[in-house]
């Protein structure tokens, strides 16, 4: 109960003021900038883990030695969560100033005006001399440069020599047909069983869209062209998934075991002796395998037709700048440093792939796995073809759908025909959205 | 000061006090008393204090719901403008999306099996706690604790570790020669595992059951005992009817709650809904459609189907409750 008129007025004003303050507090976002004359704060986001976070801390510390007036707020998430967050931010124009960026999303973000046109900064802020023209072209969509590739990677077949030795099996030599590789996996799994060890030769390769792409490219086709049209039909996909039957019948690791260790793979859980993947995954594999493992082997993946140009160099990641950044000049300084500085190369090694910039590559101590990756990429030069078109809008979700259907096949909850139908239905939605 | 009150006869205070909202006053001619200026100011102050909630309610609940209703009839990928497509999202859901139908199926199993088992466990433990007072505070807290932390990320992680291959549960079963290779990756066992996790969090309904049990007059049990009723008969003829309003309340709440399962499924499957889509519950699939696949229009349609289904189930429960819920003073 109010005691007086003054008290009543005071209470009313307090209520309205409190509402106003709450509203203003809610509205206030602020970048934490100290003004255009003072230090500038940039938000930088990447996907990765604690290991990569430490590397970025080191890289940003080196950046701040050179640019003490640019403060960098760093944040990171796992890969799926990173993109979920970016997608929400993109609807409100709140993307971070500088971002580690995946090739799969480059077209989607650039065509929707969310990324800064880097063209005016090439050679003027972004040092392009140490980067090969072909690698610079990777970040171009519709004749405009939106991203700079930090590094390249290529598809490879990793093997674990320690596991192979423990079961007395010989490594796969590389190349050969997909049937050859399947036979080797079966033989390795059998050898492990004979040695009484719960180890398998490999994982069903038909669960990865990249292996399908490799087979399509060997036949002169592609996954999707620039116009977003698929380069395969239902029969192609059915034939591909049917190649996984021996794996599902016991040659490879059972899908249930993989579900138990997910999000790790069979390879970095020391369950499988081989895995087809990108060559920059080696450092992560060794980290996850633990101290007992110091060495990995890289060989060429199987090939559908000898002499085919089915492999290609892909950016393992790019760096981009938000179109809405309030500090494009400073953002360019940061991007250039992350792409070209030798200190960054020294901090990362090949964690982000083999550095694309010569100056950054000079900072990398190429020993052990780093040297192996470089040698591997050189060794496949005769198998490297032109890179495919920049991935279509929605490619990221199709890649994930492919992986999920692959696991469903492995678990036996869908047939190959159902899997094909599901993928084409989903593809139809994505392409026509 | 203009005094209208002096111009219009005011009914005697006793009459005014006797009038209740909705009742007509004696004589019918008397006008309601004019609102006093002080009361109006109180209203302004009241609305002032309410304003933050009102802003939140309309800005964060009603507004988004209306936008979501519109988006349910569009194709919207978060990047380009929504494209109106009529009821295509709803048609696709029921005719062209096997993953959706599977998601509906496993959610229905979770609700239909998990909720009754959870309520039975809650009632059973509540009756045990009600039986003896000694140490009941400790046991009440101990049994309630899982509900407090049940939806947390840490519990889901621990649950995953417990039921994983070579985890404590799997190792325990191995001792008896039962080798399942873990529950987390097993298509047949992950559903029971999720239901066990839900049942384990029975603390909240248990506390409500306990409060209800304490309200049942002891004389009723004594009278039933004198009449020769055994324990089961007393439970069936005294406990259940007297507790029926509480059972109804818990049933309604837990059913709605079960439809909303998300966090545990997300953590245990690492967001994948696996193995084989067996943890791809409705809300998790909805989330993936919205934020992983960028099909916000489709996800909105899914959300509205869920709202309608839950509303229908709540309505049916209310209607059927007339036949089995007994309130004090009820003639039933």
Q: Uncertain segments of chain A of ≥5 residues (pLDDT<50)?
A: 6-36
Category from helices, strands and their pairing of chain B: mainly alpha
Report the largest inter-chain contact.
A-B, 46 and 41 residues
Strand arrangement in the largest pleated sheet of chain B: 1-2
| Rounded Rg of chain A | 25 Å
Please give the number of β-strands of chain B: 2
Query: Could you tell me the number of beta strands of chain A?
Result: 11
Give the distance, in angstroms, between the N- and C-terminal Cα atoms of chain A. Answer: 59 Å
Q: For the report, how would you describe the main beta sheet of chain A?
A: 6 strands, mixed
Beta-strand share of residues of chain A: 5-15%
Order of helices and strands of chain B: HHHEEHHHHHHHHHHHH
The CATH homologous superfamily of the largest domain in chain A corresponds to Periplasmic binding protein-like II
Description:
- The complex is a heterodimer of chains A (433) and B (332).
- Chain A is built from 18 helices and 11 strands.
- Chain A has 433 residues and is α+β, with helices and mostly antiparallel strands.
- Residues 6-36 of chain A have low confidence and may be disordered.
- Chain A is globular, with a radius of gyration of 25 Å.
- Chain A has helices at residues 5-27, 50-66, 79-92, 106-111, 133-137, 161-167, 178-194, 209-218, 234-242, 245-251, 255-261, 282-289, 328-340, 342-348, 358-363, 369-379, 395-411, 416-432, and strands at 40-47, 70-77, 98-101, 140-141, 144-145, 147-153, 155-159, 274-278, 297-299, 314-321, 354-355.
- In chain A, 46% of the residues lie in helices and 12% in strands.
- The termini of chain A are far apart.
- Chain A has 2 domains: 40-151 and 315-378, 3-Layer(aba) Sandwich (D-Maltodextrin-Binding Protein, domain 2); 155-312 and 389-432, Periplasmic binding protein-like II (D-Maltodextrin-Binding Protein, domain 2), CATH 3.40.190.10.
- In chain A, the strands form 3 sheets. Chain A has a 6-stranded mixed sheet. Chain A has a 3-stranded antiparallel sheet with strand order 8-7-9, with helices on one face. In chain A, strands 4-5 form a two-stranded antiparallel ribbon.
- Chain B has 332 residues and is mainly α.
- Chain B has 15 helices and 2 strands.
- The interface between A and B is large, with 46 and 41 residues.
């Amino acid at each position: 109960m109010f005691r007086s008129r003054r008290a009543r007025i005071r209470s009313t004003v307090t209520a309205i003021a409190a509402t106003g303050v709450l509203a203003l507090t809610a509205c206030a976002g602020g970048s934490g900038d100290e003004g255009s004359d003072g230090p500038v704060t940039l938000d930088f986001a990447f996907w990765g883990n604690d290991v990569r976070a430490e590397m970025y801390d080191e890289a940003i510390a080196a950046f701040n030695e050179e640019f003490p007036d640019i403060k960098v707020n760093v944040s990171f998430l796992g890969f799926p969560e990173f993109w979920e967050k970016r997608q929400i931010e993109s609807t409100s124009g709140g993307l971070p100033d500088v971002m580690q960026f995946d090739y799969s999303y480059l077209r989607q973000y650039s065509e929707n005006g969310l990324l800064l046109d880097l063209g005016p900064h090439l050679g003027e802020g972004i040092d392009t001399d140490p980067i090969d023209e072909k690698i610079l072209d990777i970040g171009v969509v519709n004749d405009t440069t939106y991203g700079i590739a930090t590094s390249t990677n290529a598809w490879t077949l990793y093997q674990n020599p320690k596991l192979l030795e423990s079961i007395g099996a010989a490594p796969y030599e590389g190349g050969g047909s997909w049937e050859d590789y399947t036979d080797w996996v079966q033989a390795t799994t059998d050898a492990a069983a004979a040695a009484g060890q719960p180890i398998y030769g490999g994982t069903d390769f038909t669960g990865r869209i990249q292996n399908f792409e490799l087979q399509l490219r060997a036949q002169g086709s592609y996954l999707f062209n620039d116009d977003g049209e698929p380069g395969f039909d239902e029969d192609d996909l059915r034939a591909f998934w049917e190649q996984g039957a021996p794996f599902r019948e016991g040659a490879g690791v059972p899908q249930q075991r993989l579900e138990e260790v997910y999000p790790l793979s069979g390879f970095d859980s020391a369950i499988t002796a081989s895995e087809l993947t990108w060559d920059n995954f080696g450092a992560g594999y060794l980290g996850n395998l633990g101290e007992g493992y110091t060495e990995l082997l890289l060989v060429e993946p199987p090939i559908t037709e000898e002499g085919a140009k089915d492999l290609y160099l892909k950016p393992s990641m790019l760096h981009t700048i938000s179109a809405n950044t309030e500090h494009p000049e400073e953002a360019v300084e940061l991007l250039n440093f992350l792409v070209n500085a030798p200190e960054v190369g020294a901090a990362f090694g090949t964690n982000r792939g083999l550095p694309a910039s010569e100056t950054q590559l000079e900072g990398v101590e190429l020993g052990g796995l780093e040297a192996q990756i470089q040698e591997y990429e050189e060794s496949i030069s005769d198998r490297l073809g032109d890179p495919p078109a920049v991935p279509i809008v929605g490619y990221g979700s199709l890649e994930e759908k492919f992986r999920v259907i692959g696991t469903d096949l492995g678990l036996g909850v869908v047939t190959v025909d159902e899997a094909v139908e599901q993928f084409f239905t989903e593809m139809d939605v994505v392409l026509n959205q | 000061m203009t005094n209208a009150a002096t111009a219009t006869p005011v009914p005697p205070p006793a009459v005014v006090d006797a009038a209740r909202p909705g009742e007509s006053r004696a004589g019918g001619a008397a006008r309601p008393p004019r609102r006093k200026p002080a009361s109006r100011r109180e209203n302004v102050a009241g609305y002032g204090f309410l304003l933050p909630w009102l802003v939140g309610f309309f800005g964060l609940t009603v507004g988004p719901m209306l936008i979501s209703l519109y988006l349910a009839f569009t194709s919207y990928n978060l990047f380009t403008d929504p494209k109106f497509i009529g009821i295509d999202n709803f048609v696709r859901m029921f005719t062209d999306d096997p993953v959706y139908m599977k998601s509906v199926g496993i959610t229905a199993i979770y609700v239909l099996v998990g909720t009754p088992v959870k309520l039975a466990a809650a009632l059973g433990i509540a009756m045990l706690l009600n039986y003896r007072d000694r140490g009941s505070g400790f046991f009440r807290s101990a049994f309630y604790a899982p509900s407090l932390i049940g939806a947390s990320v840490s519990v889901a992680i621990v649950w995953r570790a417990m039921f994983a291959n070579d985890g404590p549960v799997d190792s325990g079963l191995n001792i008896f020669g039962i080798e399942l290779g873990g529950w987390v990756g097993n298509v047949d066992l992950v559903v029971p595992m999720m239901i066990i996790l839900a049942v384990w969090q029975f603390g909240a309904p248990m506390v409500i059951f306990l409060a209800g049990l304490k309200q049942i007059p002891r004389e009723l049990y004594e009278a039933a005992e004198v009449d020769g009723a055994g324990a089961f008969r007393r439970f069936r003829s005294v406990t259940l009817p007297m507790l029926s309003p509480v059972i109804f309340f818990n049933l309604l709440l837990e059913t709605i709650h079960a439809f909303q399962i998300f966090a545990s499924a997300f953590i245990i499957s690492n967001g994948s809904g696996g193995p084989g889509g067996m943890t791809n519950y409705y809300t998790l699939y909805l989330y993936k459609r919205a934020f992983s696949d960028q099909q916000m229009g489709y996800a909105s349609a899914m959300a509205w189907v869920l709202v309608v289904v839950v509303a229908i189930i709540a309505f049916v429960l209310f209607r059927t409750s007339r036949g089995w819920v007994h309130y004090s003073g009820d003639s039933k």
